[in-house]
Amino acid sequence: MIAEFTAARGARLMDRTRPRWFLRVHRVRLNIESNVDCILGQEYGDYCRGRVALDIGPFRAACYGFAPLAPNPRGWDKLNVAWQAEIAARLTTRALDAVDQEPLVLV
Predict the structure, then answer these.
(1) DSSP sequence for 11-72
(2) CA R_g for the chain
(3) Which among 39, 43, 62, 91 has most CB atoms closer than 10 A?
(4) Is residue 35 part of a domain?
(5) Around 5, how many Cα atoms within 13 Å sit in the side-chain half-sphere?
(6) Could you give the 3-state DSSP secondary structure of residue 103?
(7) How many domains is the chain partitioned into structurally?
(8) Could you tell me if residue 61 is inside a domain?
(9) What is the spatial distance between Cα 5 and Cα 72, in angstroms, rounded to a whole number?
């Protein structure tokens, strides 16, 4: 539950600061525990550069779901699942918006 909350918060931050970020994240490679395959790593080059760009320290990064709040292996796994859900939700919304914008052609 904490992972879902913090990932949702981080996703909203990314929506504000890096529009369309979810289109650039390679979901198969996504690994929150990796400095280069995490959300910040894929978007900014590595985790530390992303933190600097967003002007957030390690604790705040955890509050945004870029790292677990408490160090335990399950925390990383839960964050991976939560971020995958955030990306999927945005991709689904984008696809539905595209369908709504398609012109209706009557034959």
Answers:
(1) HHHHHHHSTTHHHHS-TTT--TTSTTTSHHHHHHSSHHHHHHHHT--HHHHHHTTSS-SS--
(2) 15
(3) 39
(4) yes
(5) 5
(6) coil
(7) 1
(8) yes
(9) 17
Six token digits for residue 3: 């992972």
CA 83 to chain centre: 5
Tokens representing 26 are: 């390679």
* Sequence letter at residue 102: E
- Beta carbons within 10 angstroms of residue 34's beta carbon: 14
* pLDDT per residue of the chain (107 residues) written in tens, 0 to 9: 899 999 999 999 999 999 999 999 999 999 999 999 999 999 999 999 999 999 999 999 999 999 999 878 799 999 999 999 999 999 987 766 654 555 545 55
Predicted TM-score (pTM) of this structure: 0.85
> How many CB atoms are located within 10 Å of the residue 100 CB?
7
What domain range is 62 assigned to?
2-89
Assigned token pair, 43 = 């978007």
